[in-house]
What does this fold into?
Amino acid sequence: MIMNNGQTDNSIGPHELHRRLESGAPAELLDVRTPGEYSTAHVPGARLIPLGDLDAAAYLAQHAAGKTIYVLCQSGQRARKAVEKFRAAGFDGCVVVTGGTQAWMDAGLPVDHGESGTLPLMRQVQITVGFVSAMGAVLALAVDPWFALLPLITGCGLLFAGITGFCGLALLLAKMPWNRAARCQSNSCCEIKN
It folds into this structure.
């Protein structure tokens, strides 16, 4: 598949990746979700570096040559952005796992479960948008009609996110303290071991 910039979009499905991992093919698994999402459930052996913290050059300095980097997120959007960072750093050996961790779990493949008091990022987005929209509607009815702009803005934001695959609110929420593990000491590399 050819992307807009003319480069090939390397991707793999969860079953094929699982087959390759089982066969012992040299590979690195990189999960670019938030620490809260990762600790809830992740592919066994996946290394966590949240997308906002990913320094592709620093990662590549520690990367074992000859290994393909399989990049996962929740559904695939953040993984594509991570692959763009690696390409900008001059590395084309990344493969996006189609559908991300959710597709891996839907396929019934093994996952490591942890405990997390943090809601998944997309649920946080839904709660925030729902709250702002509901409050805007109530305030528009009870206080001033201009408050109707709040549901209009959040609705337009959802429409934009749906069309483009880019959700600024999700990126903002991912940087909030409750979505960052206390164990993350560096802005360039965050790793949680099993």
User: Anything to note?
Assistant: The radius of gyration is 19 Å.
